Amino acid sequence: MWILFAAGSAFFAGITAILAKCGIKKTDSDVATAIRTIIVLIFSWLMVALVGSASQVSQISAYTWLFLILSGLATGASWLCYFRALQMGDVNKVVPIDKCSTVLTVLLAFLLLGEPISPKKLIGLLAIGGGTLLMIQKKESTGQAKGRSWLLYAVLSAVFASLTSIFGKIGITGVESNLGTALRTGVVLVMAWLVVFVKGKQSMARQVPGKELVFILLSGIATGASWLCYYRALQDGPASVVVPIDKLSILVSIAFSYVVFRERLSKKAAIGLLCIVLGTLMML
Question: Where is the EamA domain (predicted)?
Answer without folding.
Answer: 1-136, 149-283
